[in-house]
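ok so for the tutorial part 2 we go from a plain amino acid sequence to predicted structure tokens. step 1 is just haveing the sequence, like this:
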Amino acid sequence: MASYEQIRRFADEHADRARIIEHETAIVDLESGAKVFDATKAAATYIVEAREGVFAVVASAAGHLKWRQLGRALGLHQIHLVPPELVKERTGYDVGTVGPLLLDGVRMFFDRRLLNHDFVYCGTEDAHHTLAIDPQLIIDSNDIAGYFDSAEFLK
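step 2 — the prediction. this is what the tokens look like for a chain of 155 residues:
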């Protein structure tokens, strides 16, 4: 289960590739995030459920995904976002603060487009702190089920 303190420790242990940004503004969406960082480099972590199980989908936050088409491409059937209480139960994060780290037992699908950036900006479980992280470190720190290009699945 993720906690802000665990994410801070992770960032400290990987100081050359990750750092925590503290900010007055509570980040609750891309618009509030844009006041703190380059929103084109924001990475959203979605928790989804399909017949095949529960997964994290880490994608560029700069667009809305076509879930049905993405699910088909990933080999997932009946894909849907999980309800907020299940997100909290499975990850320790509240919806809107989910980050791509410490998702014990949750396999991940990763958006290749994020690899175009030196750093991406992610949730930390605390709306007043953002993680700036090398996207390759996200891959190295998770159980990756597959990759996709979000440009192919934008509404």
